[in-house]
Amino acid sequence: MYQYDHIDQAIVDQRVIQFRDQTQRFLSGELASEAYQPLRLQNGLYIQRHAPMLRIAVPYGTLSSQQLRKLADISRRYDRSYAHVSTRQNFQFNWPELARVPDILAELAGVQMHAIQTSGNCIRNITTDELAGVALGERLDPRPICEILRQWSTLHPEFAFLPRKFKIAITANPEDRAAILAHDVGIDLKVDTTSAGILADVYVGGGLGRTPIIGNLLKADLPVEHLITYLEALIRVYNQFGRRDNKYKARIKILVKATGLTEFAERVERAWDLLKGNPSTISAEEIERVSAHFALPDYRLPSEDEVKNYHDRLDSDALFSRWIERNTRRHKQEGHRIVYIPLKSHGLAPGDITADQMELVARLAEQYGYGIVRTTHQQNMVLPDINVASLYEVWQSLQTEQLAQPVLNTLNDMICCPGGDFCSLANAKSIPVAEAIQARFESFDFLYDLGPIELNISGCMNACGHHHIGHIGILGVDKKGREFFQVCLGGRQGREASVGKILGPSFEQERIPEIIEIILQTYIEHRANEETFIETYDRIGIDAFKEAVYADAH
Amino acid sequence: MQTLTDTNLQIQSRYQLNVVGESENLILREQCCPVTQWRSDSEGSLRKVLITAGEDFSHLFDHLASLSHIVVEFPVFTDGRGFSTARELRERGYSGNLVAAGDFIVDQVDYLARCGFDTFEFSSKSLAEIARRKLNSNQEVYQGDALQPLPLFRRRRAAGVI
Known about the structure:
- Chain A is an alpha+beta fold.
- Chain A contains 18 helices and 21 strands.
């Protein structure tokens, strides 16, 4: 992964000093709360319901074992011994003390981490495919371009006070795990077959929130060296013309819709005329320099005995074999597998991870996985490079911390925002709903029979739990001061991304597990052959579900 | 209009960065022509222009050499349009004074300077002092900007750091 040199380090260190000064001026009353707010937000610090929340950047979801250990250490010394993985692959601490946040940032800087631009109306942490570099079918490894864009967007002088937040996601795989169509800008990298250079398709105007919109292709086949100047032109148009009168209409998707895609594209082209070819054009040397940091590990092939041993275990140990089938994926390197670690333990909110669990994952990464850990959009973690010779030991170790639950991609592998338990924006508590659903559908046989189902829960319209693009989406709403939940069906992420349809009137929290059960039973009754939930939904439509759920009301 | 003090601090850089307080150098907004009323035939007489966020200023592009001062007014410090305005004016070759006025905050001066502002209006001497310290602090940055057109990856190479 990318290693800072002394200049990268200086940039992060000077930011810590700057934020310490700003926080001291705020605490002494010298800096007004309104002036401090955007400054702390650009350092990842929210003021939440109970305490500040600090969001730490995990650039494109890649962590070293040393960094993960540091996060565990910080969670013990400054928080309540756990952390939360967000849908944008970042880490969040829910209970830090404001006055100590500069110290936390200093600790993070010591392991080349920061919280820069993890919130606020600026370019946020750039996300990518959690399997970048190890996935089958990948056109190229997107991480060097992610890192180049991370550096470009970090403390960008022109784009720190945009109309609203700005999120960029990148993929280079036909299978889109980065939800590029649900981002302000989505970048799809390809290899130019004639020149072998890298090309980028740039999508714009996707996003969830109050007005869910799927992104549109703005620019096809942009040679990658122009990516920075083109993005500067695009964001400049947004900065100048995006709405600032209403924060719910301030995202770029609203501007693109109001302007029209063609006219918007022309404005970007005109802005780009001024910038194209300037010194920010990415040099081949820079791509080479950064790419060297992402060289593949020196993979050791397992011996014949080790492979045989692995297969014997698979044959003799049904639980191990089930875990392999459910929680691991093929690796592009022979003799290796990708290990998923679902952060969906009972008794913890989806995405939560304890300090002990972090330390265990860090140790396993160090011992068996070349020291690398990934975080995912589905709020899980990944050990991307595990030799088949080590899989059995990794599995046994993960079980000691409840990290080997074979629920990946099942109903219980849900996405859920922190909700009203923590977030001051939320209408409703989303975590108890997630827990109630997990408790009702505990049987693995039932979960496996249901097949892949994506269930996403958001506590409010801001849609941090991505309810719009879940096969089943659940949204907390406020109804005369009481918490109700709306259900939508048929959403999906990936290249065929679409926004789910609302099933009908909302329900009280207690009824949600029962409603989900009716929806699942409806699917089971109607499914033909091996149809998945979403395939059945596409064939029979929402009405069959509507009738089943609201039958009582007729 | 804010009350201003007699501060006039100068910082050496590619541009002269003036932190302007109450002084004869002060660019009074009354001397400026609002950009919405500015016409090219007024060349020579109206060399000072005021742009408020959101106003079209494209009719200035062909006449930038004739202007001595452009004042960019921030209606509220979270409105970042002025950053892009400054950047674009500099990229189009404007080399006169570029003045940040209105409701920007002292914690923004380094970004403002990097976008091409060389003059800042502050309401008090103490804020101007903080601004001067910030502008002198010589921080490392990744991007090319109005002060330094080369992004870090080109400077790294030139310095032989890699």
